[in-house]
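User: For documentation purposes, I need each entry recorded in a consistent format: the amino acid sequence on its own, followed directly by the corresponding structure tokens. There are two entries in this batch. Please keep commentary to a minimum and don't merge the entries.

Assistant: Recorded as requested. Entry 1:
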Amino acid sequence: MPRVRCGIAVRGALGEGILTAGFHRVAGTLHCDGVPLDALAAQVGTPSYVYSAPCIREQYTLLAQAFAGTPHRLHYSVKANSNLAILALLQQMGAGVDIVSGGELFRALRAGYTGSGIVFSGVGKTEVEIEEALAADVLLINIESEEELRLVNDVAGRMQRRARIALRVNPEVTVDTPHPYTRTGEKGMKFGIPHDEAVRVASVALGLKNLALAGLDMHVGSQISLFGPYEMGLQRLLALLEQMRAAGATEIRYVDIGGGLAVTYDTERPIDVAQLGSKVSAMLSGSGLQLIVEPGRFIVGNAGVLLTRVLYRKRSGGKEYVITDAGMNDLLRPSHYNAYHRIEPVKAVEGRIVADVVGPVCESGDFFALNREIGDVSAGDILAVHSAGAYGFVMASQYNSRPKAAEVMVDGERYGVVTDREGYDDLVKGERVEPRWTSL
């Protein structure tokens, strides 16, 4: 079967399911690009995350082309997948990054980014993180409250710096997302400066000598498939910009529309990024502003799968269970967001069953799929959990003292381990049987 384009879902041959991203079947065996996933699992073990480098490149290029009509910067949202190899790959493509912690700043610098390619977001930056951002000379620190504004000014003064900032404004746009936790731009959310306070906070910023107000920022939510929320939010930002310029904010040159571009997990409607790019370009035409877009999931979501081995088949209470060696500690999204991930056997099998696909973690919420029709698999078979490139490994934990999985990158017919599988020693790293006692 021919390779399919990243992010596009097509129906495969009978029994082969829906194929997406860099994943396709050859003689009944699922491949990532040119690498058979059963052979890969035999080499690196399970559970393992596997990423397609060509898919990541293609998604980045697709966005770059979509926004070619306006001066723009693509800043990959590190929180979607912070693996150093992925960060380095995108840095080579010309991407910047959007970060939300000092740890992500550390990763970005380690992967080869410089301060001019980094935007520091996040609603709760610590004083130490602000110091680290200023020391790295990041492009922008996105401000989310007046208190944070004043703290950044104080830290910058102490460091004898002039901090470039953007105001993250809550656009107060109601959007329909797959889960309430992915809505960030509605009124009353913890994110951003309330819309009706933005001009006042901008005036405060203009009166603080250690700040340069250089941008406006928003984020309407995640898995947004329509242009409307971006259009409404951008219109509100541009209206605020006029008021801020009238108040003396003459240094604003960046407008950041965030990320949240929808990808396909099942039957969702993917966003038409060409249309989005065209309409945003038209709205910014002649403004003199540089656009910042912060894609995360869109770049990596469909570029990855989680490989897991079937441990047991079980029947209980009239239900079929498929028990795997990966659990909610490896991939939290199904339990946390009730998220759908397509699951299929790496090697084609005869027959179909309806089963719960669950992990070994000692929690009733440890599942990947409930009442799902899948191939009639047996113990030892390898399953691929699709669309696991975003918010997969980055949300993993060692719950139940389970070592974290390996991460693997595939590029054509070659592969490389980019995160070693943890061992038991990693579980107790930094811990002590006997406390190091002291007194205050």
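Entry 2:
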Amino acid sequence: MIALLSGKIAYKGISHIVVDTQGVGYRVFIPLTTFYELPDAGQPVTLHIHTSVKEDAINLFGFYTLQERELFQLMISVSGVGPKVAMNVLSRISAAELLEAISGGNLTKLIAIPGIGRKTAERLILELREKAVKKMAEDQIPIMDVQKKQSGMIREDVLSALVNLGYKSNAARDALDKVAREAEGELPMDQLLKKALKILAG
């Protein structure tokens, strides 16, 4: 099983590259985040590899960082999430942002990724949340800061929804402030919106 691959880039494309290792060319599928970090064709490169073995094919998926490979492997362990979907996720969002979204239960952030529906996003959060929090601790990502950021993102999403419904921005902010003062802990988006609407309706 190939876990690490070093050689020269014989071909460089957006979705895959060919790594020449002592005269043998390996096709490696990559996310955009890895593509942006690659040197030019002809230059040496080292990638962290996930090897996928099927009856009719052996595919290599390469990542510039070990963290990306670990997140890829976590995602494909979730029912309904295959390598194509996982690669698409990592092409649209950084590893740190993905960990934040999963650990914070940010459905909005995940659903915004093309190819990720609500059910898939919910499965990612349900099955990977604890692992994501553990991973953040291992990588020394400040969990409290992430939770605070997620709370702010939810508030902004609700504020935007209220403004789109026709309420004045200042009135909507005041309603959200009142909800925050009365609430015990952080509220999910649907409850925050419901309570704010109740206040605005008088």
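Summary note for entry 2:
The CA atoms of residues 5 and 47 lie 5 Å apart.
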